Amino acid sequence: MLSEVKYNSIPKENLIVFGIYSVTKNGEGCSFERLVKECFTLFPKVFAFSRYPEWPDSLKFDRQLRTLRERGWIVGGARTSISLTKFGEKIAEETEQMLAGSRLPKEANKKPIRGADTALIHLLKESAAFKRFLRDKERLSVTEMELRALLRCTLETPPRVLKQNLQYSKNLARDYAEKELLDFLEACEKILAAKVM
Description:
The chain is an all-alpha fold. It has 11 helices and 2 strands. It folds into 2 domains: 4-109, Winged helix-like DNA-binding domain superfamily/Winged helix DNA-binding domain (Arc Repressor Mutant, subunit A); 115-195, no CATH class. It has helices spanning 4-8, 12-25, 32-42, 44-47, 62-71, 86-100, 115-126, 128-135, 144-150, 159-175, 179-195; strands at residues 74-75, 83-84. A hairpin with a 7-residue loop joins strand 1 (74-75) and strand 2.
């Protein structure tokens, strides 16, 4: 069992991400029920009912799972299987280091950008919308079709998925210190909220 002193100092969202990581690392699918069991087993003081500490309180997951989806750390939910995104895996690994007491500074964990991430950043930076943004940051105009194409979505893609893809792109820009790209994506987020959400 993990030290209560250590895990009590870690945000609940990180513990949930670590719970998903722990389940999937063992080759299992992570259903909501399996996640509740894992988190309660690993971190009983955080995920128990206050009056009945021998039982897990599943309500402690509701808001956190929504927050984790919005941050782009997980996909899925209470009615489906839950899995980590690339950013969720990074958070889980950092949490594992914190639990072990050997967390490295964020700079030491930086991985070189490659593969699909490189392609996505290149696609975004080469887009006509981003080039217009660089010319005039105050008056960005982007059509809904342009936004959907940038976020790898079609007209039929629901707003929830658009928002998740945008969050993923923002996380990627932040993770690799692409400041102008992040500013562009935040401007797009405001436009998207007005047009679609």
